[in-house]
Design a protein that fits this description.
The complex is a heterodimer. Chain A is of the alpha/beta class. Chain A contains 25 helices and 22 strands. Helices cover 39% and strands 15% of the residues of chain A. In chain B, a hairpin with a 4-residue loop joins strand 10 and strand 11. The chains are: A alpha/beta, B alpha/beta.
Chain lengths: 693, 399
C-alpha cells in the first residue's frame, strides 16, 4: 500500500494535540515500513520515544487503505490508557479487552462484528482463553491486517514468573504468513534477546534501534540489609525529594507494609499491586496528576505506564535482572531535566529472588505427579479432581498445568473443564530450557549485585549490560542522597513491623470429596463454623517471624515476648462476645509446645485453659500436605473432644502456625458440636497461602 | 511447526480454518479452482507461495482464476491461520503441504494434482509412506464379521503389513484395532473430527509408539459430511498397496462407490472381496473385476498373496499414473530420486540431461523447488541439491 506522509503527519499532530509537532527521527520511516508491507519490523527504543505513535498511525493508515483492523498484544493493558487517549484523538477506534472488563465483551463483540474497531488491544493470555477466541476474536481473526507486539522482549525472556503466555505470541509470530504485517517494540533488548527475536520473527527482520541512555537520570545504589533501616530512610527522604515517584518492592506484602508504614509517618502514598483491582485506574491518575507523593508498587506497575514528569524511582529491594531494573527505573525523568533512581539493597532480596527463580518451573516430581494422575484417567480430570489425587499444592499444580499446556506440542490439553493427555510426550527440551533459564536468571541476579556494588558509572553499566552504546561519559546531574538513617525512626519502624496482625478467614465449605470418616461435606453450618480469627504475624516475616521460628525449631517453646504480644493483640482485637476460656489444638508429636503457649497466654489474659480436644491418631504433618484437599483429608477422624468439664461460653482456640486453616475449622466444628459457644481462632503465624508473591 | 510458505499459502487459499465460531466472508477455493490456480502459476515457474509477497505480479495474474477480492479476503486470513495452527498443535496435530518433503509420495504419484493440497495428521507421518493393506466395509456389521475383520488386522500385524482404514465404526475399527492389539501398525484416514480422535486414549498409546497415524484432508475441527467421507475413501486406496472389501451393499453407500471407482476409473491398486456367496454387493464387485480374497492362513502366505496380486496388477496395466497434469510432479519426484537424499549436487545442465528435459522446463522446475524449500542452491559453480529436513515437523527445540 502507498504511504502518505502528509496524512501521517496530520495524525501525529491530532494525536499529540500539538499543531506543529514533527516526527522524532525514525518514527516516520517506521510507519512507512509497516504501511508499505516491507516485512517485519522491530523497534528498540526507550520508553517515551513514541512507539505507540508509530503503530497507531500505521494502523489508522492501513484502515484508511481499506484493510482490516490491528491487534495489539501488551502485557499490561490497564496501563495503556494514556496512549489510547492519544489514539482516540487521531480518530483511531481502539478498544481494550481484558479479564476485568468481561461485562463489556458483548459490546466489543458487536463493534468488531460491525467493523467499527481499528485497533483491538488484548493481553497474551487472551489467546489461551476459549471463550474469548470463540466469542470475540472469531469475528476479527480473518481480517487482522497488522499485529503489534508490545514489550517484545518478553518473547525472549518469557519470564516464567511473569508472562508464560508470551510463548503463544512467539508461536503466533512463527506461524504468521508474510501477508500479515507485524511490528514488535521493546525498550530493552540485549544481544541475547535480539538473537531470540531474530529467531522468532525471522531473518528478514528490520531493526530500528535508538539511544538507550537517559541523561536526565541520576542513579545511585545503597546497601542497607535491615528492613527497618530502609523504612526509616524512606520516611526521611520522602519529606525532602521533589516531585512524585514510584517505590518498587518485590512482593505484594511488602507493598502493603511499606505503604502502611509511610502513611503512618504522614506520607501521601498508596500500595499498587496486581491485587489492587479496580482502584488501579484511580491510583495511576493520582500519580499522573501528582496527587500522591508515591505509589508503592510491585512490577504490576511497570511497562506502559507513561508519566513524563516522574521525579524519582526508588527500589526497596534489588530486582532480579538488569532488564527488569532498567524497565522500572527508566520510568523516571523522561521529560524532566533531573530525576533520581535509587536502588536500596536489602538482606531479604536474595531469598525472594531465589524463590522466584526456583519456583518458576515445576519440578520433575510435580510434572510426573500431574501427568501420572491424568494417565490413570483416560477421560481426563478437573483441577480439583487432580488435587484430590496428588500431594501438590493448588498453585504449583496450576502452574504445572499451565506450563505443560504451553509446550509445543503440549503433553496435555484442556477439553472443557477437564485436562487430558494428548498424543505428545513431554520432551527433555522442556527441562533443558528450564535449566538453561534458571542458570541465566542466576547470572542476571549476580549482575544486579555487581550493579549494587558500583560507586559510579551506573548508567553506563546498565546500557552496557543491555548491549547498547554507552556513548560519552555522562556524570549524574544530582548529588547522591545520603545513606544515613535516623536511629529513632529505625526504632519506630521496628515497632511498626511488629504491630500488624493478620486475619484468619473462617472456611465456609468442607473440601471437595468431603471428609468421609466424619461424614462431612458441602457447606459448613453457620453455627458450626469458626469466627474470624487473628494471627500475630506471617510466617517468616520481618516483625515477629524470627522469634516464632526460633520458638518452634530451636527453643521448643515460645518466648514471653510473643505471649505478651498475643495478649496485646487480643486486647486490641476485642472479639465480641469475648472469650470466657481458652483451649488449644492438640498434638501427639509435640504435646507441650502449643499447650504450654496456650496456658501462658490464658494466664496472661486471666482466663482458664482447658484441654478440650485430643488427637486420637498419628498423622503426617500438615505442612507436608501440599494442597487443601490433602490437608483436610489428613485430619479426617483424628481429633476428638475430651470429657473435661468445660464452660459453655465463647472460647479462644489457640494454635502456633496456621497453614491451611483446616485444623482450626475442624476443631471449631468439634467444639461447637459439643456445646461450646463461638470459637475465636488465634495463631502466632499464618503460613502458606499467599504469604509470598 | 514452521510451515513452508507454499503450505501456508495452500492453507490460506483452500482450508476453512475452523476456529471457535470464527466466521468470515472467505470462501476457500474448491479443489477445481485450486488446481487451476496451481497450474496457472506453474506456467510461470511459480508456486502458491508467490501470492504471499505483497505487490507480487502473481497476485495480478491469479485474477484470471479467482477474483481479486476473493483472493485478498482469503490471503488476509494470516492471523486466523496462526491461531488455527496453534489450536492444532495443542492436539499434537501436524500439517503437510503437497510440496513438503514428508507428504506421502504415493498420493502425489497416484493422484497427481488431485492429491489434497494439505494433510492434517497426528502420529508419525513416515508411516504414511509405507503403504499397506486397505480394509474397507460398512459401519453396521454383525459380531462374526467384526471378529473376522479383527483376524485380518491381526494377520497383517504378524506379517508387518500396515492396515489402512477409515477410522469409522464397524469394519474400519475392527481392522485397525485387530492390527494394533497384535503390536501391528495402522493408518486411519479420517473424514472428520481429527482433533477429537487425536486425544482419544486408545489412539494415544499407539500414536506415541509410532504404530498409528491418523490423517485427514479435512480441517481437524470439521464434523461429519457424506461428501467428505466419499472423497476420503479415494485416499484410503491411494495410500495402500492393495485393498480388501469386507462387505458392501449393491449400488449404494461409500464402500460400494469407492470400490467401483477403483475397479473402473482409478485402478490404483488390486481389489479383493471377502469370499461370501450370500452377499450380492460383493458378488457384484467381483463381476466388475474384484478378486476373491484367498484367506491366507499365516504371515508368509499373506505376504505372498500381496506380492503376487501386485505383480499381476502391474502386468495388467493398472497403477499407471499417466495423466499429463501429473508430469510436473513427476519431474520433481524424478529429480529427488536422481539427487538422492545423500547430498549429491548437480548443475542445471547435468540435471537437464538426467531428466532429458528442455532447459526452459528445467529452469522453471529448479526455481520452483528452490522456492518451496525442497532444493538448496549452491554457488561457484551453481549446483542444486536436496535440502534435508528434520524427521519431525515440530521443531524440537524451536521454542
Amino acid at each position: 500500500m502507498r504511504f502518505r506522509e502528509q496524512r501521517a503527519l496530520e495524525l501525529l499532530r491530532a494525536g499529540t494535540g500539538v499543531a506543529d509537532a514533527t516526527f522524532r527521527p525514525g518514527q516516520c520511516e517506521a510507519i512507512q515500513h509497516i504501511v508499505e508491507g516491507r516485512g517485519r519490523l522491530l523497534l528498540v527504543q526507550k520508553t517515551g520515544w513514541g512507539k505507540s505513535n508509530v503503530y497507531f498511525i500505521a494502523a489508522k493508515l492501513l484502515r484508511e487503505g481499506g484493510l482490516g483492523p490491528a491487534l495489539l498484544f501488551s502485557p499490561l493493558l490497564a496501563l495503556m490508557r494514556n496512549q489510547i487517549d492519544a489514539a482516540v484523538r487521531m480518530g483511531v477506534r481502539a478498544l481494550t479487552i481484558h479479564s476485568d472488563n468481561q461485562e463489556e465483551w458483548g459490546q466489543i463483540e458487536q463493534a468488531v462484528e460491525a467493523d467499527q474497531v481499528d485497533v483491538l488491544l488484548i493481553s497474551p493470555e487472551r489467546l489461551a482463553n476459549a471463550r474469548f477466541m470463540a466469542d470475540v476474536l472469531a469475528g476479527i481473526a480473518a481480517r487482522v491486517s497488522l499485529i503489534v507486539i508490545d514489550e517484545a522482549h518478553c518473547i525472549s525472556d518469557w519470564g516464567h514468573d511473569f508472562r508464560p503466555h508470551y510463548r503463544l505470541i512467539e508461536r503466533m509470530s512463527r506461524n504468521l504468513p508474510a501477508t500479515t504485517h507485524l511490528v514488535a517494540t521493546t525498550a530493552t533488548a540485549n544481544n541475547r534477546v535480539m538473537a531470540d527475536l531474530r529467531d522468532v520473527l525471522g531473518p528478514q527482520l528490520t531493526v530500528a534501534r535508538g539511544d538507550l541512555r537517559r541523561p536526565s537520570l541520576s542513579l545511585q545504589t545503597i546497601r542497607m540489609p535491615d528492613q527497618a533501616d530502609r523504612l526509616a530512610w524512606l520516611a526521611r527522604q520522602l519529606t525532602q525529594l521533589p516531585g512524585s515517584g514510584i517505590i518498587y518492592v518485590l512482593t505484594k506484602r511488602d507493598a502493603q507494609t511499606v505503604a502502611a508504614w509511610l502513611q503512618s509517618r504522614g506520607h501521601n502514598v498508596a500500595a499498587y499491586t496486581s491485587e489492587t483491582g479496580s482502584d488501579r485506574i484511580g491510583l495511576e491518575q493520582a500519580l499522573l496528576r501528582n496527587r500522591v507523593k508515591a505509589l508503592v508498587a510491585t512490577s504490576a506497575l511497570a511497562m506502559g505506564f507513561d508519566k513524563p514528569d516522574l521525579a524519582f524511582v526508588i527500589h526497596f529491594q534489588t530486582p532480579g535482572s538488569v532488564v527488569a531494573y532498567y524497565q522500572q527505573v527508566g520510568r523516571a525523568g523522561r521529560a524532566l531535566e533531573r530525576a533520581r533512581g535509587v536502588l536500596l539493597s536489602g538482606a531479604e532480596e536474595a531469598d525472594i529472588n531465589d524463590f522466584f527463580i526456583t519456583t518458576a518451573f515445576p519440578t520433575r516430581d510435580e510434572a510426573a505427579a500431574v501427568l501420572g494422575a491424568l494417565e490413570a484417567e483416560p477421560s481426563g480430570l478437573s483441577v480439583s479432581q487432580i488435587l484430590s489425587r496428588i500431594n501438590v499444592s493448588r498453585a504449583r499444580t496450576e502452574k504445572t498445568l499451565q506450563l505443560l499446556s504451553l509446550e509445543s506440542p503440549p503433553p496435555i490439553a484442556r477439553a472443557g473443564l477437564r485436562w487430558q493427555l494428548t498424543a505428545a510426550r513431554l520432551g527433555e527440551g522442556f527441562w533443558d530450557r528450564a535449566d538453561r533459564l534458571t542458570a541465566l536468571r542466576r547470572q542476571e541476579q549476580q549482575q544486579m549485585q555487581e550493579y549494587v556494588a558500583l560507586n559510579g558509572g551506573h548508567m553506563e553499566f546498565l546500557v552496557r549490560a543491555l548491549d547498547g552504546d554507552p556513548g560519552p561519559d555522562l556524570p549524574p546531574s544530582l548529588a547522591p542522597l545520603s545513606a544515613e538513617v535516623d536511629r529513632v525512626l529505625t526504632q519506630a519502624a521496628r515497632v511498626f513491623l511488629r504491630r500488624t496482625s493478620v486475619d484468619i478467614e473462617p472456611r465456609e465449605r468442607w473440601p471437595g470429596g468431603g471428609l468421609p470418616i466424619w461424614g462431612l461435606s458441602g457447606p459448613i453450618a453457620l453455627e458450626q463454623r469458626a469466627q474470624p480469627g487473628k494471627a500475630l504475624s506471617i510466617w517468616g516475616d520481618s516483625g515477629w517471624g524470627e522469634l516464632v521460628r526460633q520458638g518452634k525449631y530451636v527453643d521448643d517453646g515460645y518466648s514471653d515476648e510473643l505471649i505478651g504480644a498475643c495478649a496485646g493483640l487480643v486486647a486490641q482485637w476485642r472479639p465480641e462476645p469475648p472469650p470466657a476460656w481458652v483451649t488449644y489444638v492438640p498434638s501427639r508429636r509435640r504435646p507441650v509446645l502449643v499447650a504450654g503457649f496456650a496456658q501462658r497466654l490464658a494466664a496472661a489474659l486471666g482466663l482458664p485453659c482447658l484441654e478440650a480436644l485430643v488427637k486420637t491418631h498419628d498423622t503426617a504433618e500438615q505442612k507436608d500436605m501440599l494442597n487443601s484437599a490433602q490437608q483436610a483429608r489428613n485430619l479426617d477422624g483424628t481429633i476428638a473432644v475430651t470429657d473435661v468439664a468445660r464452660p459453655s461460653g465463647p472460647v479462644l482456640l489457640v494454635d502456633d502456625i496456621c497453614d491451611s486453616r483446616w485444623t482450626l475449622t475442624v476443631c471449631s466444628w468439634l467444639l461447637r458440636s459439643s456445646g461450646s459457644g463461638p470459637v475465636w481462632p488465634m495463631a502466632l503465624a499464618l503460613a502458606g497461602g499467599g504469604s509470598r508473591t | 511447526m514452521n510451515l513452508s510458505p507454499d503450505t501456508q499459502a495452500a492453507l490460506l487459499l483452500t482450508a476453512p480454518l475452523l476456529l471457535g465460531g470464527a466466521t468470515s466472508d472467505a470462501q476457500p477455493l474448491t479443489p477445481g479452482e485450486a488446481k487451476r490456480l496451481v497450474r496457472m502459476l506453474a506456467g510461470d515457474g511459480d508456486t502458491l507461495s508467490a501470492l504471499l509477497t505483497p505487490d507480487s505480479p502473481a497476485v495480478g495474474r491469479a485474477a484470471s482464476v479467482v477474483s481479486a477480492d476473493r483472493l485478498r479476503i482469503l490471503l488476509q486470513r494470516g492471523f486466523l491461520l496462526s491461531q488455527a495452527i496453534e489450536a492444532w498443535q495443542t492436539r499434537a496435530i501436524w500439517v503437510l503441504g503437497r510440496t513438503d518433503a514428508g507428504y506421502p509420495v504415493r498420493l502425489v504419484e497416484r493422484l497427481g494434482e488431485d492429491a489434497p493440497p494439505v494433510l492434517y495428521g497426528c502420529g508419525d507421518p513416515g508411516l504414511l509412506q509405507g503403504g499397506g493393506l486397505a480394509v474397507v466395509g460398512s459401519r453396521k456389521v454383525d459380531g462374526a464379521l467384526m471378529e473376522y475383520t479383527r483376524g485380518v488386522g491381526a494377520l497383517a500385524a504378524c506379517a508387518r503389513v500396515t492396515v489402512v482404514s477409515g477410522g469409522a465404526r464397524g469394519i474400519d475399527q475392527a481392522a485397525m484395532s485387530g492390527a494394533l492389539a497384535d503390536d501391528g501398525s495402522a493408518i486411519g484416514v479420517l473424514a472428520d473430527s481429527l482433533a477429537r480422535a487425536a486425544i482419544v486414549r486408545e489412539h494415544r498409546d499407539a500414536i506415541l509408539d509410532e504404530r498409528l497415524t491418523l490423517v485427514s484432508p479435512y480441517d481437524p475441527a470439521a464434523g461429519f459430511n457424506v461428501g467428505n467421507a466419499m472423497q476420503r475413501n479415494k485416499l484410503i486406496y491411494a495410500m495402500s498397496d492393495a485393498a480388501l472389501v469386507m462387505c458392501c451393499d449393491t449400488g449404494v453407500g461409500g464402500t460400494w462407490a469407492g470400490a467401483v471407482e477403483q475397479l473402473g476409473k482409478l485402478r490404483l491398486v488390486p481389489v479383493w472381496v471377502r469370499p461370501d456367496r450370500s452377499s450380492a454387493g460383493l458378488l457384484a464387485l467381483q463381476q466388475k473385476g474384484a478378486l476373491t480374497w484367498p484367506e491366507p492362513k499365516g504371515p508368509e502366505a499373506l505376504a505372498e498373496v500381496l506380492r503376487s496380486a501386485q505383480a499381476a496388477f502391474a502386468e495388467a496395466g493398472g497403477d499407471e499414473p499417466a495423466t499429463a497434469a501429473t508430469c510436473a510432479m513427476d519431474h520433481g519426484a524424478r529429480l529427488r530420486e536422481t539427487l538422492g537424499a545423500r547430498g549429491l549436487a548437480r548443475t542445471e545442465v547435468e540435471i537437464a540431461a538426467d531428466l532429458s528435459l528442455p532447459s526452459a522446463e528445467v529452469k522453471a522446475l529448479l526455481r520452483r523447488l528452490v522456492a518451496d524449500g525442497s532444493l538448496e542452491k549452491l554457488v561457484r559453480p551453481v549446483r542444486y541439491r536436496i535440502r534435508t529436513y528434520a524427521p519431525t515437523l515440530f521443531d524440537p527445540d524451536g521454542l
